[in-house]
Amino acid sequence: MLLPGVGRKKAEALYDAGFRSIEDIRRAELSKLAGARGVGRALAERIQEHIESGGMEEHGLYLCPECGAFVSADAVMCPNCGADLSGGEEEI
User: Fold this and answer.
1) By CB distance 3.0 to 4.6 Å, which of 2, 8, 15, 60 could disulfide with 73?
2) Averaged pLDDT for residues 9-18
């Protein structure tokens, strides 16, 4: 898990709330990030602090379009659900 406190369900909630990239999260108002299903203010603060501290730089993370799990930029298959990721991933 590369974002503190964020697993598959919360990653899906962030995606559904419109956070499709780390830059989206970085630019977000804390209240909007905290409003994502299951996130809340304390976790939103931890996530933003982690990103601002450089914890996410150059990871090349993506969300699986099938299950919402984080996958690396070079993955061709989701390690969580086995979805084919050979093209069209959404960056986060």
Assistant:
1) 60
2) 88
